[in-house]
Design brief:
Length: 332
């Protein structure tokens, strides 16, 4: 089998549920174990899923925990870490964006002056939002228990954004700042205006999705035969009549650019995005735990169907992943 990279995008609690359904269906249909990926890029919710995979949790157990199905012995670790279910968080509302904005740091002012358009306008605005109040680092403190020695050896890359200048930082990448795993993940998940920025080495960081919901193009020079991208925040694009549709369109445009960058290197890319059914279930409530089981099941079903498409089977075949087995679908 050729080396296959795995990209796990942002998407909050709903995004984690989507990851679980996609990865469980992918493993069941093809026999490919996501834990075998030599490089995993995680952004926001994807950094949590990536950490759990690197800690030995299987895709099937990710889905089982989300849907409250029986866990394997190894999967019981998730219940030990997080209890029975996702934490209950207040819904993200427009008022979370109405904090008094932060003054831009000199680094950000210099960067905008010297390179107009970099970072993108949306990223610039999100970086300047006033700090949120929810302590994401405290919520993810249980991850200390699974932090492997030398986790930053290069097989797990966690994307965050430096608040003072809007630059992406990839924890785990060679040359990146040294960070405890649980804090790197917290930084990657620190949605501006909702969660408090995370301080690592005296530097404040916010959600890696500010730069890109997937950061997939990071893998273009890693010598991979294929990259599998799970992108919860893009997907079905109806009319942009609500915030969810606008966010999905923006995420989709960024993802398309990154996929093209990978394919220009001759890398086969397979993308999994929510369809209409998953988008209806998510309803723009990315931090809600109310429908995680239904999202996981819907993702499992749509992924199983997506894997039957000829172009998907061909792309997976280039990486040595066997064509999906045709068998009766089992609920995640």
């Amino acid at each position: 089998m050729q080396p296959i990279g795995l990209v796990l995008g942002a998407g909050g609690i709903a995004g984690q549920a989507y990851h679980a359904g996609v990865l469980a269906a992918l493993e069941e249909a093809t026999g490919w174990d996501p834990r075998s990926a030599p490089r995993v890029v995680g952004t926001s919710a994807g950094s949590i899923t990536g950490t759990l995979l690197r800690s030995g949790v299987s895709a099937r157990d990710l889905a089982a925990w989300t849907t409250r199905a029986p866990l394997s012995v190894e999967g019981e670790m998730m219940r030990d870490l997080f209890g029975e279910e996702f934490p209950e968080l207040e819904p993200f509302r427009a008022r979370h964006l109405l904090h008094r904005p932060s003054l831009p740091g000199l680094g950000l002012v210099r960067r905008v002056a010297l390179r107009p358009g970099q970072p993108p306008g949306a990223a610039l605005l999100l970086t300047l939002l006033g700090p949120g109040t929810v302590d994401i680092a405290a919520l993810l403190d249980p991850l200390k228990a699974v932090e492997p020695a030398g986790w930053s050896s290069g097989d797990l890359w966690i994307c965050a954004v430096r608040r003072k200048d809007g630059r992406r930082v990839v924890f785990g990448e060679p040359g990146s700042p040294v960070a405890p795993l649980h804090l790197a993940v917290a930084a990657s998940c620190a949605v501006p205006g909702y969660f408090a920025p995370v301080s690592i080495g005296g530097v404040s960081y916010v959600d890696g999705g500010v730069h890109s919901p997937t950061n997939a193009a990071l893998l273009r020079d890693e010598g991979l035969a294929a990259v599998i991208v799970v992108s919860p925040m893009s997907g079905w694009r109806g009319l942009p009549t609500d915030t969810n549709a606008v966010v999905s369109r923006h995420a989709g445009m960024r993802l398309n650019l990154e996929v093209r960058a990978l394919r220009r290197r001759g890398i086969a890319v397979v993308v999994f995005e929510p369809g209409r059914a998953e988008h209806r279930l998510i309803g723009g409530q990315w931090l809600s735990r109310d429908r995680v089981a239904a999202i996981t099941r819907a993702a499992f079903e749509s992924t199983t169907a997506h894997l039957q498409r000829l172009e998907v089977r061909q792309a997976l075949g280039r990486a040595g992943i066997a064509a999906p087995h045709r068998r009766d679908r089992r609920s995640a």
